[in-house]
Amino acid sequence: MADIFLSYAREDLQKARLLATGLEQQGWSVFWDRTSIQIGQDFDEVIEEAIEQARCMIVGWSQASKRSDWVRGEATIGRERRILLPILFESVSPPIAFRSLHTEDFSNWRGEPDNAEFLNLCKALTRLAGNGQQISAPISSTMPFADITPSPKNARLPFEPEMIEIPAGTFQMGGNGYEREQPIHTVTFAKPFKLGKYPETFAEYDAYAEQTGCKKPDDNGWGREQRPVINVTWQEAVDYAAWLGQVTGKAYGLPSETEWEYACRAGSSDDYFWGSDESKAGEHAWFDQNSQDRTHPVGQKQANRYGLYEMTGNVWEWLQDTWYENYQGAPNNGCAWEKGGGLFWRVLRGGS
């Protein structure tokens, strides 16, 4: 069985995965993913045996885990065995029965191996569970959070997409070319917002897949790295954005359709963001006449006036909105349109 039993609420799965990964990189084995319990095994028996054989238990307190009878029960056994090391996944007070125990605050921990709280936890683990690898040893570059070091709040982590600030303003959304683009309506952005400089790349998404254990999407044999990620469902895109927000402490999500169109137009009212001259499309976009029917690495064409690349061509891009037949009743403040509509249909823009 494992050196460490990690007790947590399922709502804190991503934080538990991050911690377990960090500890395993230091040489300890961690029992934490209960989905690995095999068919036919008794859940209670497996959990009880894992706790009994573990040399240390870590409990991650949050609002959710405080409400969980399972977590409270496991933590009680750990405390009775005197192997419990409590930490905070959120800035909450531990349950009253556990407040006498010193508790390290991991609410802002993003996986940094030389973080003070993480080092303190490793020292306590060494006392209870023996040595893992040397705590100061470099982490393999193929493992999650390999090159992350403490950084200023607004600094960009190695796998984090580069963002462009889009200024506040007003524009006319829609067009007269197709009925589904009508009615043309005014949309106002009272505040600036940010959008990715490039479509999400395989390099960025693969980092997420490696750190969460998610399956990597197929690249169709075209290559990965700086090519835009493909074969990703809308829900997978949403999950990726949520994870990115969790590990960076920043607000990430899919853009609304109004945000996308406003950013794509970049102040232009022409047919395309570069103007109305279709002969210049090849300077700005990958499409059927120049792409050889495959994706291409991002950033090779000219950006629009806001500095955004491939807002047209290369890949379709998922948006937050549900699908509507037209813009009748669409919001005018830049928010996603999700009330009603085709709940099982989501909006794509950009072209392929």
Number of domains: 2
Q: What is the CATH top level name of the largest domain?
A: Alpha Beta
Instruction: Give the overall pLDDT as a whole number.
Output: 86
Low-confidence spans: pLDDT under 50, at least 5 residues? Answer: 133-152
User: Percent helix among the residues?
Assistant: 25-40%
End-to-end distance, in Å? 49 Å
Structural category is: alpha/beta
- The number of strands is 11
Reported CATH architecture of the largest domain: Alpha-Beta Complex
The side-by-side strand order for the widest beta sheet comes to: 2-1-3-4-5
- CATH topology call of the largest domain: paralog of FGE (formylglycine-generating enzyme)
Describe the structure.
With 352 residues, the chain is α/β, with parallel strands linked by helices. It has helices at residues 13-25, 43-53, 63-67, 69-80, 116-129, 202-212, 234-248, 257-265, 281-284, and strands spanning 4-7, 30-31, 56-61, 84-88, 104-105, 163-166, 169-173, 185-189, 193-196, 317-323, 342-349. It has 2 domains: 4-129, Rossmann fold (3-Layer(aba) Sandwich), CATH 3.40.50.10140; 163-349, paralog of FGE (formylglycine-generating enzyme). It has a 5-stranded parallel beta sheet with strand order 2-1-3-4-5.
